[in-house]
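Hi L.,

You mentioned the student needs an example of a multi-chain input paired with its predicted structure. This one should do, with 583 residues in total across all chains.
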Amino acid sequence: MAVVDRDGGVLAEVTELDTRRHAEVIGESIAFCLDAAGVAPDELSAVVAGMGPGPFTGLRVGIAAARAFAFGAGKPCLPLISHDAIAFERLGGLALAISGEAPDPAATETAAPEPAAPDPAAPLLVITDARRRELYWSAFSGLDDAGLPVRLAAPELARPAELDEAVAGSCGSAFVAEATRTDPTSTPVSAAALGMLGEVLFAAGRPFARDEPLYLRSPDVTVPGAPKRVS
Amino acid sequence: MSATEPLVLGIETSCDETGIGIVRGRTLLANVIASSMDEHARYGGVVPEIAARAHLEALQPTLEAALAEAGVTLGDLDAIAVTSGPGLAGALMVGVGAAKALALGAGKPLYAVNHLVGHVGADVLRDDGSEIELPTIALLVSGGHTSLLHVRDLLDDVELLGETIDDAAGEAFDKVARLLGLPYPGGPQIDRVAADGDPKAIRFPRGLTLPKDLAQHRYDFSFSGLKTAVARHVEKLQNAGSDVPTADVAASFREAVVDVLLTKALAACAELGVPRLLLGGGVVANARVRQVAAERCAAAGIELRIPPLALCTDNGAMIAALGAELASRGRAPSPLGFGADSTLPVTSAQAS
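Structure written out for the whole complex:
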């Protein structure tokens, strides 16, 4: 949960890492962020919702709350792919947006970069935990002129052993070899990055994501066979 | 806020119905329901993940439809109420998350309320001018619940006398329908087929009615053994190469369910000296349940109350009504940290 402003930067952010408490904490998180930012709901321009990919229950609580809060405040709810926010942050787009500078993909060639500075032209493979021994992944080639991550393929689901093959299939083996990978055990989605990504997308006149949750899995259910005999 | 007639919006997502209701005090203004029942039909029962996904998609359209039907805006509301339990956890969480956010976005107080007490509270919304009299015995029967309550006060004094120890009555209807080759949901199908059958053709067992069971489970129900008895009966006929008299089996099964439900409910009325019985829950749609309840209550001198069917099945209006009751009695809104509680006890009208 975060409140961000195109000019003012990140005004407030709170993250709850306990994946079993989404429904409990969501109200207090919204209230805390609004209070910390000193902003009333009707002062917001919009609400940005991360549509995943993500495991079932938590994703749903987040989207339900984002839509309902926006509806309650009379503001638009703008859907985004959560992996785009991770890429936006990791590739340095968030930092650039906050500093107000334009990205410079040539910077790494013309000047000695800070050791930890993100490279906006570097291929990035965002990998997050999908539970049940599976991973969600998205491939990005870097940031574009507007400082927005360039997505190479739609988010997908893969088993760890089959990840490289799946990525190579849509992005090529060179990408697999070169891309920096996020650690699926510790890659939370920053709500501040999500919010600021929304600001930059809107300013650049780019489209938002489709308004549907990215579960990337069918519900757990099997069609029953004939009733079991009891005698 | 009007102290006596607060305008309250209720959100219900405990099972497969997304319900949004709006009431002004005890007056119903809107009751809009989106059901995912059709999506569950091929699986023979409610699939929690499918229900939860459907709630997320249905919530906002249902909310908009309810506001339009009531002719009010979010800004007009005095409070919002939401079911926080009991029910399916994943389904409840969609409603709870949305309700908290809606309340914060619109700047309204929020009440977390009990689904089962909501079923009792639905009766206050009847438009025939009659008022619910307390105390009353309440029998709530649905696909997820079979509960017998002693209600002395809607908010502060609801006692659980008994409940099912295995399947809910509605679940038994679904399972027996399936073994008779009838589609889901089973209640209306059994009702349809049973119309031509003899309810006394087969004497199926009445769960937890023997003296040894009554000592432990005076007001509890059990339908699992009944379902197995029906299955055995059907298999025996099939093994012998005989035709299964579906109408008689359906009628006799239904009679066993109805008999045990009303025998226990009327026993509670008699033993606790409460001459009133309130029915609630989706199974009340069953014609035979209503018929037998009317006959037996009349014979015993017990006043029977059955809210209109649209208020018996899961709905948001009953949640709004309970929220309005809390608000009009000056109760504090729920703190924002409450969660979905799939086993919320009936003694808590308002969750904390």
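You could point out the following to them. The first strand of chain A starts at residue 2 and ends at 5. Residues 108-115 of chain A have pLDDT under 50 and may be disordered.

Best wishes,
N.
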